[in-house]
Automatic annotation (TrEMBL), chains A, B:
<dbReference type="GO" id="GO:0003677">
    <property type="term" value="F:DNA binding"/>
</dbReference>
<keyword id="KW-0805">Transcription regulation</keyword>
<feature type="domain" description="HTH crp-type">
    <location>
        <begin position="155"/>
        <end position="233"/>
    </location>
</feature>
<dbReference type="GO" id="GO:0003700">
    <property type="term" value="F:DNA-binding transcription factor activity"/>
</dbReference>
<dbReference type="InterPro" id="IPR018335">
    <property type="entry name" value="Tscrpt_reg_HTH_Crp-type_CS"/>
</dbReference>
<dbReference type="InterPro" id="IPR036390">
    <property type="entry name" value="WH_DNA-bd_sf"/>
</dbReference>
<dbReference type="InterPro" id="IPR012318">
    <property type="entry name" value="HTH_CRP"/>
</dbReference>
<dbReference type="GO" id="GO:0005829">
    <property type="term" value="C:cytosol"/>
</dbReference>
<keyword id="KW-0804">Transcription</keyword>
<dbReference type="InterPro" id="IPR036388">
    <property type="entry name" value="WH-like_DNA-bd_sf"/>
</dbReference>
<dbReference type="Pfam" id="PF00027">
    <property type="entry name" value="cNMP_binding"/>
</dbReference>
<feature type="domain" description="Cyclic nucleotide-binding">
    <location>
        <begin position="24"/>
        <end position="141"/>
    </location>
</feature>
<protein>
    <submittedName>
        <fullName>CRP/FNR family transcriptional regulator</fullName>
    </submittedName>
</protein>
<dbReference type="InterPro" id="IPR014710">
    <property type="entry name" value="RmlC-like_jellyroll"/>
</dbReference>
<keyword id="KW-0238">DNA-binding</keyword>
<dbReference type="InterPro" id="IPR018490">
    <property type="entry name" value="cNMP-bd_dom_sf"/>
</dbReference>
<dbReference type="InterPro" id="IPR050397">
    <property type="entry name" value="Env_Response_Regulators"/>
</dbReference>
Length: 249, 249
DNA sequence: CGGTAGTTTGAAAGAATTCAAAGCAAGTGG
DNA sequence: CCACTTGCTTTGAATTCTTTCAAACTACCG
Protein backbone atom coordinates (compact mmCIF):
# COMPACT_ATOMS: atom_id res chain seq x y z
CA UNK A 1 0.00 0.00 0.00
CA UNK A 2 3.02 2.27 0.15
CA UNK A 3 3.96 4.43 -2.76
CA UNK A 4 7.70 4.68 -2.40
CA UNK A 5 9.31 5.39 -5.70
CA UNK A 6 11.84 2.67 -6.28
CA UNK A 7 14.09 4.14 -8.89
CA UNK A 8 16.63 1.70 -10.17
CA UNK A 9 20.05 2.82 -11.23
CA UNK A 10 20.38 0.12 -13.85
CA UNK A 11 20.58 1.49 -17.37
CA UNK A 12 20.01 -1.71 -19.26
CA UNK A 13 20.37 -1.28 -23.01
CA UNK A 14 17.21 -1.59 -25.10
CA UNK A 15 18.81 -4.16 -27.38
CA UNK A 16 18.05 -7.22 -25.28
CA UNK A 17 14.89 -5.93 -23.70
CA UNK A 18 12.25 -8.68 -23.51
CA UNK A 19 9.55 -6.33 -24.77
CA UNK A 20 11.63 -4.69 -27.46
CA UNK A 21 9.35 -5.79 -30.31
CA UNK A 22 5.94 -5.42 -28.70
CA UNK A 23 6.12 -2.23 -26.67
CA UNK A 24 5.68 1.38 -27.75
CA UNK A 25 9.28 1.27 -28.99
CA UNK A 26 8.54 -1.70 -31.25
CA UNK A 27 9.02 -0.02 -34.62
CA UNK A 28 11.84 2.26 -33.54
CA UNK A 29 15.07 2.33 -35.42
CA UNK A 30 18.38 3.02 -33.76
CA UNK A 31 18.15 6.79 -33.86
CA UNK A 32 14.73 6.92 -32.21
CA UNK A 33 15.78 4.22 -29.80
CA UNK A 34 18.68 6.36 -28.76
CA UNK A 35 16.38 9.27 -27.98
CA UNK A 36 14.17 6.99 -25.90
CA UNK A 37 17.19 5.58 -24.15
CA UNK A 38 18.16 9.09 -23.08
CA UNK A 39 14.90 9.76 -21.34
CA UNK A 40 14.27 6.39 -19.78
CA UNK A 41 14.70 5.09 -16.24
CA UNK A 42 13.51 1.99 -14.46
CA UNK A 43 11.21 1.65 -11.50
CA UNK A 44 10.51 -1.46 -9.54
CA UNK A 45 7.47 -2.14 -7.37
CA UNK A 46 6.61 -5.00 -5.08
CA UNK A 47 3.37 -6.93 -5.29
CA UNK A 48 0.64 -4.87 -3.65
CA UNK A 49 2.43 -1.55 -3.97
CA UNK A 50 0.74 1.40 -5.61
CA UNK A 51 2.27 3.04 -8.65
CA UNK A 52 -0.04 6.06 -8.59
CA UNK A 53 -3.39 7.03 -7.15
CA UNK A 54 -6.22 8.34 -9.25
CA UNK A 55 -6.03 12.14 -9.53
CA UNK A 56 -2.34 12.14 -8.57
CA UNK A 57 0.07 14.04 -10.66
CA UNK A 58 2.07 11.70 -12.86
CA UNK A 59 5.15 13.02 -14.56
CA UNK A 60 6.07 9.94 -16.53
CA UNK A 61 4.65 7.36 -18.88
CA UNK A 62 5.97 3.82 -18.99
CA UNK A 63 6.10 0.38 -20.51
CA UNK A 64 5.61 -2.70 -18.38
CA UNK A 65 8.78 -4.77 -18.68
CA UNK A 66 7.81 -7.60 -16.38
CA UNK A 67 5.13 -8.36 -13.83
CA UNK A 68 1.58 -7.19 -13.79
CA UNK A 69 -0.34 -4.06 -12.80
CA UNK A 70 -4.01 -3.30 -12.45
CA UNK A 71 -5.87 -0.09 -13.27
CA UNK A 72 -8.63 0.41 -10.78
CA UNK A 73 -11.68 2.64 -10.55
CA UNK A 74 -13.91 3.16 -7.56
CA UNK A 75 -17.38 4.33 -6.65
CA UNK A 76 -17.54 6.53 -3.57
CA UNK A 77 -19.06 3.78 -1.49
CA UNK A 78 -16.02 1.63 -2.11
CA UNK A 79 -17.20 -0.66 -4.87
CA UNK A 80 -14.12 -1.35 -6.96
CA UNK A 81 -13.69 -2.35 -10.57
CA UNK A 82 -10.43 -3.11 -12.27
CA UNK A 83 -10.58 -1.52 -15.70
CA UNK A 84 -7.29 -2.62 -17.12
CA UNK A 85 -4.67 -5.25 -16.62
CA UNK A 86 -1.20 -4.22 -17.71
CA UNK A 87 1.04 -7.07 -18.82
CA UNK A 88 4.58 -6.96 -20.20
CA UNK A 89 4.83 -4.56 -23.18
CA UNK A 90 1.65 -2.67 -22.24
CA UNK A 91 1.78 1.09 -22.01
CA UNK A 92 0.97 3.06 -18.88
CA UNK A 93 -0.11 6.67 -18.80
CA UNK A 94 -1.73 9.09 -21.18
CA UNK A 95 0.33 11.50 -23.23
CA UNK A 96 -1.12 14.97 -22.92
CA UNK A 97 -2.52 14.42 -19.46
CA UNK A 98 -0.45 14.79 -16.34
CA UNK A 99 -3.03 13.54 -13.86
CA UNK A 100 -3.68 9.84 -13.42
CA UNK A 101 -7.25 8.85 -14.29
CA UNK A 102 -6.99 5.53 -12.46
CA UNK A 103 -5.26 4.04 -9.49
CA UNK A 104 -2.45 1.78 -10.64
CA UNK A 105 -1.38 -1.09 -8.42
CA UNK A 106 1.27 -3.74 -8.90
CA UNK A 107 -0.50 -7.08 -8.58
CA UNK A 108 2.82 -8.90 -8.75
CA UNK A 109 6.39 -7.65 -8.60
CA UNK A 110 6.59 -5.11 -11.35
CA UNK A 111 9.31 -3.52 -13.44
CA UNK A 112 8.52 -0.38 -15.40
CA UNK A 113 10.56 1.28 -18.10
CA UNK A 114 9.60 4.91 -17.53
CA UNK A 115 9.94 7.92 -19.81
CA UNK A 116 9.79 11.46 -18.53
CA UNK A 117 6.57 12.97 -19.77
CA UNK A 118 7.73 16.11 -21.50
CA UNK A 119 10.51 14.60 -23.59
CA UNK A 120 8.26 11.71 -24.50
CA UNK A 121 5.52 14.03 -25.70
CA UNK A 122 8.06 15.92 -27.76
CA UNK A 123 9.20 12.64 -29.28
CA UNK A 124 5.61 11.77 -30.14
CA UNK A 125 5.28 15.02 -32.04
CA UNK A 126 8.50 14.53 -33.95
CA UNK A 127 8.50 10.81 -34.59
CA UNK A 128 5.43 9.56 -36.45
CA UNK A 129 6.64 6.00 -36.08
CA UNK A 130 6.36 6.16 -32.30
CA UNK A 131 3.05 8.00 -32.45
CA UNK A 132 1.76 5.44 -34.92
CA UNK A 133 2.74 2.56 -32.69
CA UNK A 134 1.03 4.20 -29.75
CA UNK A 135 -2.15 4.64 -31.78
CA UNK A 136 -2.02 1.00 -32.76
CA UNK A 137 -1.56 -0.08 -29.15
CA UNK A 138 -4.36 2.18 -27.99
CA UNK A 139 -6.70 0.71 -30.58
CA UNK A 140 -5.74 -2.77 -29.41
CA UNK A 141 -6.48 -1.80 -25.83
CA UNK A 142 -9.82 -0.41 -26.89
CA UNK A 143 -10.65 -3.71 -28.56
CA UNK A 144 -9.60 -5.55 -25.41
CA UNK A 145 -11.74 -3.26 -23.29
CA UNK A 146 -14.69 -3.98 -25.55
CA UNK A 147 -14.20 -7.70 -25.19
CA UNK A 148 -14.21 -7.06 -21.48
CA UNK A 149 -17.52 -5.23 -21.77
CA UNK A 150 -19.03 -8.37 -23.26
CA UNK A 151 -17.59 -10.40 -20.43
CA UNK A 152 -18.89 -8.12 -17.69
CA UNK A 153 -22.27 -7.57 -19.27
CA UNK A 154 -23.21 -11.01 -20.43
CA UNK A 155 -21.10 -13.82 -19.06
CA UNK A 156 -21.82 -16.05 -16.08
CA UNK A 157 -19.41 -16.19 -13.16
CA UNK A 158 -18.03 -19.48 -14.41
CA UNK A 159 -17.47 -18.15 -17.93
CA UNK A 160 -15.80 -15.07 -16.51
CA UNK A 161 -13.23 -17.10 -14.62
CA UNK A 162 -12.54 -19.27 -17.64
CA UNK A 163 -12.21 -16.18 -19.83
CA UNK A 164 -9.66 -14.62 -17.50
CA UNK A 165 -7.55 -17.75 -17.62
CA UNK A 166 -7.82 -17.85 -21.41
CA UNK A 167 -6.66 -14.27 -21.67
CA UNK A 168 -3.71 -14.78 -19.37
CA UNK A 169 -2.72 -17.93 -21.25
CA UNK A 170 -2.92 -16.15 -24.61
CA UNK A 171 -0.95 -13.15 -23.44
CA UNK A 172 1.73 -15.33 -21.92
CA UNK A 173 1.95 -17.37 -25.10
CA UNK A 174 2.06 -14.26 -27.30
CA UNK A 175 5.11 -12.96 -25.48
CA UNK A 176 6.87 -16.25 -26.21
CA UNK A 177 5.52 -16.22 -29.75
CA UNK A 178 3.63 -19.43 -29.22
CA UNK A 179 0.02 -20.50 -29.46
CA UNK A 180 -1.64 -22.01 -26.40
CA UNK A 181 -2.67 -25.61 -27.03
CA UNK A 182 -3.24 -28.84 -25.13
CA UNK A 183 -1.94 -28.99 -21.58
CA UNK A 184 -0.63 -25.66 -20.35
CA UNK A 185 0.30 -23.94 -17.12
CA UNK A 186 -1.02 -20.46 -16.43
CA UNK A 187 0.50 -18.28 -13.78
CA UNK A 188 -2.10 -16.27 -11.97
CA UNK A 189 -0.42 -13.37 -10.20
CA UNK A 190 -3.65 -12.10 -8.70
CA UNK A 191 -5.34 -12.55 -5.36
CA UNK A 192 -8.91 -13.80 -5.37
CA UNK A 193 -9.95 -10.28 -4.54
CA UNK A 194 -8.10 -8.81 -7.50
CA UNK A 195 -9.69 -11.42 -9.75
CA UNK A 196 -13.08 -10.46 -8.33
CA UNK A 197 -12.40 -6.78 -8.97
CA UNK A 198 -11.46 -7.57 -12.51
CA UNK A 199 -14.42 -9.83 -13.19
CA UNK A 200 -17.11 -7.80 -11.46
CA UNK A 201 -17.72 -10.52 -8.87
CA UNK A 202 -17.19 -10.98 -5.16
CA UNK A 203 -14.14 -12.84 -3.99
CA UNK A 204 -16.34 -15.60 -2.57
CA UNK A 205 -17.92 -16.21 -5.96
CA UNK A 206 -14.49 -16.34 -7.56
CA UNK A 207 -13.38 -18.91 -5.03
CA UNK A 208 -16.51 -20.99 -5.51
CA UNK A 209 -16.21 -21.01 -9.29
CA UNK A 210 -12.55 -21.92 -9.15
CA UNK A 211 -13.57 -24.88 -7.02
CA UNK A 212 -16.33 -25.77 -9.46
CA UNK A 213 -13.98 -25.68 -12.44
CA UNK A 214 -11.54 -27.82 -10.51
CA UNK A 215 -14.21 -30.36 -9.64
CA UNK A 216 -15.26 -30.41 -13.29
CA UNK A 217 -11.68 -31.24 -14.28
CA UNK A 218 -11.26 -28.11 -16.38
CA UNK A 219 -8.40 -26.85 -14.22
CA UNK A 220 -6.05 -28.14 -11.55
CA UNK A 221 -4.54 -25.95 -8.87
CA UNK A 222 -0.86 -25.92 -8.05
CA UNK A 223 -0.82 -23.61 -5.07
CA UNK A 224 -3.05 -20.54 -5.26
CA UNK A 225 -1.23 -18.71 -8.00
CA UNK A 226 -0.62 -21.35 -10.60
CA UNK A 227 -3.26 -23.12 -12.64
CA UNK A 228 -2.78 -26.21 -14.75
CA UNK A 229 -5.10 -26.49 -17.72
CA UNK A 230 -5.26 -30.08 -19.00
CA UNK A 231 -6.98 -29.01 -22.21
CA UNK A 232 -6.83 -25.44 -23.40
CA UNK A 233 -9.63 -26.12 -25.86
CA UNK A 234 -11.92 -27.24 -23.07
CA UNK A 235 -11.16 -24.04 -21.18
CA UNK A 236 -12.01 -21.94 -24.21
CA UNK A 237 -15.36 -23.71 -24.46
CA UNK A 238 -16.03 -22.91 -20.80
CA UNK A 239 -15.25 -19.27 -21.52
CA UNK A 240 -18.27 -19.01 -23.81
CA UNK A 241 -16.34 -17.37 -26.67
CA UNK A 242 -16.33 -18.70 -30.17
CA UNK A 243 -13.65 -21.30 -30.43
CA UNK A 244 -11.50 -19.67 -33.09
CA UNK A 245 -8.17 -18.68 -31.65
CA UNK A 246 -7.72 -15.14 -30.50
CA UNK A 247 -5.41 -12.83 -32.38
CA UNK A 248 -1.76 -13.80 -32.08
CA UNK A 249 -0.59 -10.87 -34.20
CA UNK B 1 -32.09 -5.17 -40.77
CA UNK B 2 -31.22 -4.45 -44.39
CA UNK B 3 -27.78 -3.27 -45.35
CA UNK B 4 -28.51 -1.14 -48.39
CA UNK B 5 -25.79 1.36 -48.91
CA UNK B 6 -27.50 4.71 -49.03
CA UNK B 7 -24.94 6.90 -50.67
CA UNK B 8 -25.93 10.51 -50.76
CA UNK B 9 -24.94 12.74 -53.58
CA UNK B 10 -24.78 15.81 -51.41
CA UNK B 11 -21.32 17.27 -51.18
CA UNK B 12 -21.86 19.60 -48.28
CA UNK B 13 -18.83 21.76 -47.53
CA UNK B 14 -16.98 21.08 -44.27
CA UNK B 15 -17.19 24.70 -43.22
CA UNK B 16 -20.61 24.61 -41.63
CA UNK B 17 -20.48 21.01 -40.54
CA UNK B 18 -22.01 20.58 -37.07
CA UNK B 19 -19.13 18.37 -35.95
CA UNK B 20 -16.37 20.42 -37.53
CA UNK B 21 -14.62 21.12 -34.23
CA UNK B 22 -15.06 17.81 -32.42
CA UNK B 23 -14.55 15.14 -35.06
CA UNK B 24 -11.35 13.66 -36.43
CA UNK B 25 -11.02 16.72 -38.64
CA UNK B 26 -11.14 19.06 -35.64
CA UNK B 27 -7.61 20.44 -35.82
CA UNK B 28 -7.37 20.47 -39.59
CA UNK B 29 -6.40 23.59 -41.42
CA UNK B 30 -7.71 24.42 -44.83
CA UNK B 31 -5.17 22.41 -46.77
CA UNK B 32 -5.81 19.19 -44.87
CA UNK B 33 -9.50 19.87 -44.91
CA UNK B 34 -9.33 20.08 -48.67
CA UNK B 35 -7.71 16.67 -48.87
CA UNK B 36 -10.39 15.21 -46.62
CA UNK B 37 -13.08 16.87 -48.66
CA UNK B 38 -11.76 15.12 -51.76
CA UNK B 39 -12.15 11.66 -50.29
CA UNK B 40 -15.40 12.09 -48.43
CA UNK B 41 -18.93 11.01 -49.22
CA UNK B 42 -22.09 10.81 -47.16
CA UNK B 43 -24.18 7.82 -46.23
CA UNK B 44 -27.54 7.83 -44.59
CA UNK B 45 -29.15 4.98 -42.67
CA UNK B 46 -32.57 4.57 -41.17
CA UNK B 47 -33.16 3.60 -37.56
CA UNK B 48 -32.64 -0.14 -37.24
CA UNK B 49 -30.54 -0.51 -40.37
CA UNK B 50 -27.16 -2.17 -40.24
CA UNK B 51 -24.07 -0.28 -41.31
CA UNK B 52 -21.81 -3.35 -41.32
CA UNK B 53 -21.75 -6.83 -39.85
CA UNK B 54 -18.89 -8.12 -37.75
CA UNK B 55 -16.26 -9.77 -39.98
CA UNK B 56 -17.54 -7.94 -43.06
CA UNK B 57 -15.13 -6.14 -45.25
CA UNK B 58 -15.28 -2.42 -44.65
CA UNK B 59 -13.63 -0.14 -47.15
CA UNK B 60 -14.28 3.15 -45.42
CA UNK B 61 -13.98 4.88 -42.09
CA UNK B 62 -16.38 7.60 -41.01
CA UNK B 63 -17.47 10.31 -38.64
CA UNK B 64 -20.98 10.33 -37.24
CA UNK B 65 -22.56 13.61 -38.33
CA UNK B 66 -25.96 13.11 -36.76
CA UNK B 67 -27.95 10.32 -35.19
CA UNK B 68 -26.68 7.42 -33.21
CA UNK B 69 -25.13 4.02 -33.89
CA UNK B 70 -24.34 1.06 -31.70
CA UNK B 71 -21.38 -1.31 -31.87
CA UNK B 72 -22.49 -4.75 -30.93
CA UNK B 73 -20.79 -7.98 -30.01
CA UNK B 74 -22.33 -11.41 -29.65
CA UNK B 75 -21.70 -14.75 -28.02
CA UNK B 76 -22.56 -17.75 -30.21
CA UNK B 77 -25.67 -18.50 -28.20
CA UNK B 78 -27.07 -15.09 -29.03
CA UNK B 79 -26.31 -13.11 -25.91
CA UNK B 80 -25.66 -9.58 -27.10
CA UNK B 81 -23.67 -6.74 -25.64
CA UNK B 82 -23.39 -3.28 -27.07
CA UNK B 83 -19.77 -2.23 -26.70
CA UNK B 84 -19.91 1.27 -28.05
CA UNK B 85 -22.38 4.02 -28.68
CA UNK B 86 -21.43 6.35 -31.49
CA UNK B 87 -22.76 9.86 -31.19
CA UNK B 88 -22.20 12.87 -33.44
CA UNK B 89 -18.47 13.52 -33.98
CA UNK B 90 -17.46 9.96 -32.99
CA UNK B 91 -15.22 8.01 -35.31
CA UNK B 92 -16.18 4.70 -36.87
CA UNK B 93 -13.75 2.10 -38.15
CA UNK B 94 -10.17 1.20 -37.51
CA UNK B 95 -7.39 2.46 -39.73
CA UNK B 96 -5.15 -0.41 -40.73
CA UNK B 97 -7.89 -3.02 -40.54
CA UNK B 98 -10.30 -3.64 -43.38
CA UNK B 99 -12.57 -6.08 -41.56
CA UNK B 100 -15.19 -4.86 -39.10
CA UNK B 101 -14.65 -6.16 -35.59
CA UNK B 102 -18.19 -5.34 -34.51
CA UNK B 103 -21.63 -5.17 -35.95
CA UNK B 104 -22.67 -1.55 -36.38
CA UNK B 105 -26.35 -0.66 -36.29
CA UNK B 106 -28.09 2.67 -36.61
CA UNK B 107 -30.21 3.06 -33.48
CA UNK B 108 -31.74 6.21 -34.87
CA UNK B 109 -31.61 7.80 -38.29
CA UNK B 110 -27.93 8.21 -38.96
CA UNK B 111 -25.76 10.33 -41.20
CA UNK B 112 -22.15 9.34 -41.75
CA UNK B 113 -19.36 11.35 -43.30
CA UNK B 114 -17.31 8.56 -44.85
CA UNK B 115 -13.72 8.54 -46.06
CA UNK B 116 -12.38 5.91 -48.39
CA UNK B 117 -9.99 3.77 -46.41
CA UNK B 118 -6.84 3.90 -48.50
CA UNK B 119 -6.66 7.65 -49.00
CA UNK B 120 -7.51 8.18 -45.36
CA UNK B 121 -4.70 5.93 -44.22
CA UNK B 122 -2.33 7.78 -46.49
CA UNK B 123 -3.49 11.05 -44.98
CA UNK B 124 -2.85 9.66 -41.50
CA UNK B 125 0.72 8.87 -42.45
CA UNK B 126 1.34 12.28 -43.94
CA UNK B 127 -0.57 14.54 -41.61
CA UNK B 128 0.48 14.25 -37.98
CA UNK B 129 -2.26 16.64 -36.98
CA UNK B 130 -4.95 14.25 -38.15
CA UNK B 131 -3.16 11.25 -36.64
CA UNK B 132 -2.77 13.12 -33.39
CA UNK B 133 -6.43 13.98 -33.25
CA UNK B 134 -7.33 10.36 -33.90
CA UNK B 135 -5.03 9.24 -31.07
CA UNK B 136 -6.67 11.74 -28.76
CA UNK B 137 -10.14 10.53 -29.72
CA UNK B 138 -9.13 6.90 -29.29
CA UNK B 139 -7.78 7.63 -25.82
CA UNK B 140 -11.04 9.35 -24.97
CA UNK B 141 -12.97 6.34 -26.19
CA UNK B 142 -10.78 4.08 -24.11
CA UNK B 143 -11.55 6.17 -21.04
CA UNK B 144 -15.25 5.99 -21.85
CA UNK B 145 -15.02 2.22 -22.28
CA UNK B 146 -13.35 1.97 -18.89
CA UNK B 147 -16.10 3.98 -17.26
CA UNK B 148 -18.46 1.53 -18.88
CA UNK B 149 -16.55 -1.37 -17.35
CA UNK B 150 -17.22 0.10 -13.92
CA UNK B 151 -20.88 0.44 -14.79
CA UNK B 152 -21.25 -3.12 -16.05
CA UNK B 153 -19.19 -4.67 -13.31
CA UNK B 154 -20.42 -2.87 -10.24
CA UNK B 155 -23.58 -0.85 -10.68
CA UNK B 156 -27.14 -1.90 -9.89
CA UNK B 157 -29.78 -1.91 -12.60
CA UNK B 158 -31.17 1.35 -11.33
CA UNK B 159 -27.77 3.02 -11.30
CA UNK B 160 -27.10 1.73 -14.80
CA UNK B 161 -30.22 3.36 -16.18
CA UNK B 162 -29.47 6.63 -14.44
CA UNK B 163 -25.88 6.51 -15.72
CA UNK B 164 -27.01 6.05 -19.30
CA UNK B 165 -29.27 9.07 -19.05
CA UNK B 166 -26.45 11.11 -17.50
CA UNK B 167 -24.11 10.19 -20.32
CA UNK B 168 -26.63 11.03 -23.02
CA UNK B 169 -27.39 14.34 -21.33
CA UNK B 170 -23.69 15.21 -21.05
CA UNK B 171 -22.93 14.30 -24.64
CA UNK B 172 -25.89 16.26 -25.90
CA UNK B 173 -24.84 19.26 -23.84
CA UNK B 174 -21.20 18.99 -24.93
CA UNK B 175 -22.19 19.26 -28.59
CA UNK B 176 -24.03 22.48 -27.77
CA UNK B 177 -21.15 23.60 -25.57
CA UNK B 178 -23.36 23.74 -22.51
CA UNK B 179 -23.30 22.10 -19.12
CA UNK B 180 -26.31 20.07 -18.04
CA UNK B 181 -28.02 21.57 -15.01
CA UNK B 182 -31.43 21.76 -13.37
CA UNK B 183 -34.39 20.69 -15.49
CA UNK B 184 -33.36 19.13 -18.77
CA UNK B 185 -34.81 17.02 -21.53
CA UNK B 186 -32.89 14.00 -22.76
CA UNK B 187 -33.70 12.36 -26.07
CA UNK B 188 -33.35 8.63 -25.90
CA UNK B 189 -33.09 7.25 -29.41
CA UNK B 190 -32.89 3.65 -28.22
CA UNK B 191 -35.43 0.89 -27.83
CA UNK B 192 -35.68 -0.77 -24.43
CA UNK B 193 -33.89 -3.72 -25.94
CA UNK B 194 -31.00 -1.59 -27.18
CA UNK B 195 -30.75 -0.02 -23.74
CA UNK B 196 -30.68 -3.50 -22.22
CA UNK B 197 -27.93 -4.58 -24.61
CA UNK B 198 -25.94 -1.55 -23.67
CA UNK B 199 -26.43 -1.92 -19.93
CA UNK B 200 -26.00 -5.67 -19.66
CA UNK B 201 -29.60 -6.15 -18.53
CA UNK B 202 -32.78 -7.67 -19.91
CA UNK B 203 -35.31 -5.43 -21.54
CA UNK B 204 -37.80 -6.24 -18.78
CA UNK B 205 -35.41 -5.03 -16.12
CA UNK B 206 -34.83 -1.84 -18.07
CA UNK B 207 -38.54 -1.25 -18.29
CA UNK B 208 -39.04 -1.94 -14.59
CA UNK B 209 -36.27 0.40 -13.54
CA UNK B 210 -37.52 3.15 -15.80
CA UNK B 211 -40.87 2.79 -14.07
CA UNK B 212 -39.20 2.83 -10.67
CA UNK B 213 -37.26 6.00 -11.47
CA UNK B 214 -40.47 7.57 -12.73
CA UNK B 215 -42.36 6.64 -9.57
CA UNK B 216 -39.47 8.06 -7.52
CA UNK B 217 -39.84 11.35 -9.38
CA UNK B 218 -36.30 11.23 -10.77
CA UNK B 219 -37.55 11.23 -14.34
CA UNK B 220 -40.73 11.89 -16.29
CA UNK B 221 -41.56 10.23 -19.57
CA UNK B 222 -42.70 12.12 -22.63
CA UNK B 223 -43.45 9.28 -24.97
CA UNK B 224 -41.00 6.40 -25.01
CA UNK B 225 -38.03 8.20 -26.47
CA UNK B 226 -37.90 11.41 -24.53
CA UNK B 227 -37.11 11.76 -20.86
CA UNK B 228 -37.59 14.83 -18.74
CA UNK B 229 -35.19 15.15 -15.85
CA UNK B 230 -36.51 17.61 -13.25
CA UNK B 231 -33.16 17.77 -11.47
CA UNK B 232 -30.00 16.72 -13.24
CA UNK B 233 -28.18 16.66 -9.91
CA UNK B 234 -30.65 14.16 -8.51
CA UNK B 235 -30.13 11.95 -11.54
CA UNK B 236 -26.36 12.05 -11.09
CA UNK B 237 -26.81 10.94 -7.49
CA UNK B 238 -28.92 8.01 -8.67
CA UNK B 239 -26.14 7.08 -11.10
CA UNK B 240 -23.81 6.30 -8.21
CA UNK B 241 -20.91 8.35 -9.62
CA UNK B 242 -19.14 11.00 -7.68
CA UNK B 243 -21.05 14.19 -8.10
CA UNK B 244 -18.32 16.29 -9.71
CA UNK B 245 -19.26 17.10 -13.26
CA UNK B 246 -17.90 14.93 -16.01
CA UNK B 247 -15.33 16.34 -18.38
CA UNK B 248 -16.75 18.94 -20.72
CA UNK B 249 -13.46 19.41 -22.57
C1' DC C 1 -60.21 -2.20 -37.54
C1' DG C 2 -56.87 -5.62 -36.85
C1' DG C 3 -51.96 -6.39 -36.86
C1' DT C 4 -47.44 -5.67 -35.34
C1' DA C 5 -43.54 -4.02 -32.81
C1' DG C 6 -42.37 -2.37 -28.74
C1' DT C 7 -43.39 -1.89 -23.82
C1' DT C 8 -45.16 -2.82 -19.23
C1' DT C 9 -46.36 -5.72 -15.42
C1' DG C 10 -46.71 -10.06 -12.67
C1' DA C 11 -45.12 -14.38 -10.53
C1' DA C 12 -41.70 -17.87 -10.05
C1' DA C 13 -37.03 -19.31 -10.53
C1' DG C 14 -32.22 -18.67 -10.44
C1' DA C 15 -27.62 -16.75 -9.90
C1' DA C 16 -24.67 -14.17 -7.26
C1' DT C 17 -24.14 -11.65 -2.97
C1' DT C 18 -23.96 -11.07 1.93
C1' DC C 19 -22.85 -12.47 6.35
C1' DA C 20 -20.51 -15.81 9.04
C1' DA C 21 -17.22 -19.17 10.28
C1' DA C 22 -13.55 -22.14 9.56
C1' DG C 23 -9.22 -23.61 7.04
C1' DC C 24 -4.54 -22.96 5.45
C1' DA C 25 0.20 -21.34 4.71
C1' DA C 26 3.85 -18.37 5.82
C1' DG C 27 6.26 -15.73 9.02
C1' DT C 28 7.40 -13.98 13.89
C1' DG C 29 8.74 -14.24 18.38
C1' DG C 30 9.16 -16.63 22.55
C1' DC D 1 10.95 -25.70 17.58
C1' DC D 2 6.36 -24.68 18.54
C1' DA D 3 2.56 -21.38 19.52
C1' DC D 4 0.46 -17.64 17.55
C1' DT D 5 -0.63 -13.99 14.46
C1' DT D 6 -1.75 -12.48 9.89
C1' DG D 7 -3.38 -12.50 5.25
C1' DC D 8 -5.72 -14.98 2.10
C1' DT D 9 -8.93 -18.59 0.77
C1' DT D 10 -12.65 -21.86 1.14
C1' DT D 11 -17.20 -23.32 2.41
C1' DG D 12 -22.03 -22.80 4.23
C1' DA D 13 -26.69 -20.74 4.75
C1' DA D 14 -29.82 -17.13 3.98
C1' DT D 15 -30.99 -13.22 1.32
C1' DT D 16 -31.41 -10.20 -2.62
C1' DC D 17 -31.52 -8.75 -7.17
C1' DT D 18 -32.13 -9.89 -11.76
C1' DT D 19 -33.81 -13.02 -15.02
C1' DT D 20 -37.17 -15.97 -17.11
C1' DC D 21 -41.55 -17.05 -18.66
C1' DA D 22 -46.10 -15.35 -19.48
C1' DA D 23 -49.65 -12.26 -20.40
C1' DA D 24 -51.62 -7.88 -21.19
C1' DC D 25 -51.22 -3.18 -22.85
C1' DT D 26 -50.19 0.79 -26.24
C1' DA D 27 -49.30 3.29 -30.29
C1' DC D 28 -48.64 3.36 -34.85
C1' DC D 29 -49.67 1.77 -39.69
C1' DG D 30 -51.80 -0.22 -43.51
Amino acid sequence: MTTDAAIIATQAPCENCPIRYRAVCAHCESEELGELEDMKFYRRYEAGQNVVWAADRMDFVASVVSGMAGLTQQLEDGRTQMVGLLLPSDFLGRPGRDVAAYTVTATSDLLLCCFRRKPFEKLLRERPRVAGRLLEMTLDELDAARDWLLLLGRKSAREKIASLLVILARREAALLRRRPEGRIVVSLPLTREAMADYLGLTLETVSRQMSTLKRAGVIELDGKRRVIVPSFGALVIESGDDSDGGPLS
